[in-house]
Amino acid sequence: MTHSATGQGQASSRPRRKRIEPMKAIRAIRALIADKEDTGQVFKIIDALSGGADERMFNKFMANGTGQQVVAEKRDLIALLNDRERLSKLPEGTLGRTYYEFMAEENLTADGLVAASEEAPRLYAEMPEGAAIFRDRMRDSHDLWHVTTGYGRDGLGELCLLAFTYAQTRNRGIGFIVLVGGRVSSKEMPGIGIWKAIREGYRHGKAASWLPTADWETLLAQPLADVRRQLGIVAPETYQRISPITSAAEKGLTAGKPGLKEAA
Prior knowledge:
Blueprint: H1 7-12, H2 22-34, H3 39-49, H4 53-62, H5 65-72, H6 77-81, H7 84-88, H8 95-105, H9 112-117, H10 129-140, H11 142-149, H12 155-169, H13 172-188, H14 194-207, H15 216-219, H16 224-231, H17 237-254, H18 260-263
């Protein structure tokens, strides 16, 4: 299939508006609460509640020069992120080198989210080529967002990054996860600022440049500090202050122990 970045080609490449499926989202959020490592449930919730968010974001993406270039060139971000040897040879402190170190420390691969995302069949229903490129790029850049924003993969870090992402995308599925996750976490770990950190993530997402149109292929070779300045991303100070406490508390809760008092 050929793709034109403007006009009729753009219209034909748009993702379809999805029917809202609240019961599917409720079942998935219950499963996610029971097993916070079940990433597939995240994609099910986003799929169930996204409605017209994908179409709206794709239109914004295609109105941007970088977005048009990504689709016209049929860029495959995941192939670049899977080139660990190339990333490891980038200078210390660059986005790409920091991403490589982050993935190695967390024992992750760039295509780790692919299998989880396929648990939401509607996300992988047949769609026009341009829309599929955009969908995959959003998924595959998730850990780049982690590195760029400064949020870790701990429970609070994921919630704060989702709050940041909701501010950027206005996807109701993501907002739903943030609301439920924030409520559960604040009950498990009261009085330490869970909601303050989440609100900070949302504010930072609103203030930053629109990350879906970031030229990641170019930014990987640049110093991370410069990338953050270009994208208008500031340090998540509240998250950084309380994440050691919440991470220790999470370990205690997982082990069936009080956790929070020991962490504090």
